[in-house]
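User:
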Amino acid sequence: MPAVVTRKNQADIRDPAVKNTFINGINAFNSLSTSRGEIGGSYGTLVAIHRHPHKFHSADGDVGTQRFLTWHRVYLSVLEFWVSSIPNYQNFYIPYWDWTVDRNIPNWLQNFKPHVNIPNTESIPPTPSSVEPVDVSRTPPPPGQDGEFSLPTENKIKDCLRKPTYTEFTMTLEGLHADVHAWVGGTMRDLLTSPADPLFWMHHANIDRIYTSWREQHADNSDTIPILSGLDLNMDPWAGTEPEYRHWDWVAYDKLITV
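Assistant: Predicted structure:
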């Protein structure tokens, strides 16, 4: 079955219509005041999911470490599903930002910093009891200069891809991923608000591309799959389990990485 979505490197996109579809699609999704009762069915509610206890980071313990890559894989596709369901945005997809090559925030996204109202609920209705307004901000170091944090290099990613076990690989990649959040700064540096920044999705698309590259080079065995069992296999708050998304054919990438 061919992939439903092929994610491409943002730097290779020459058609302005593709860039406009990404920007305007997120704006259209962000303009929805209700998710029609669907979990994450509006931009604000989708961002809100990232502040609820779904065990998707190492800060959530060993289970969070094991779920990090698969959980965010689903998260990305949920955004693509909902935006592509809006009339005129059926071709929406998330381009990836390869920060090993493009060492600055992409020019066409420099000024794309939406205002996002983040409710304390994952769906509307019910009516949220509180809403946090967020104006996306970024505080990267000046171009060509190192700040407190540095973007990962190609060599670091290739070293990561050489990790033989899933646990070693995901722990290394999660650490490198955190460096990108910290380098961008502002909204991206806060776990509770980071998905409000459209860069979050392009950054995580690149993380998923790296995971896909590693996955392609490793057959499934006890060392190369997440260590999960029981309810921890469920990628809540959505349906589906880790094995279902491990070799998911919804998404493909224009380029994978080999070592």
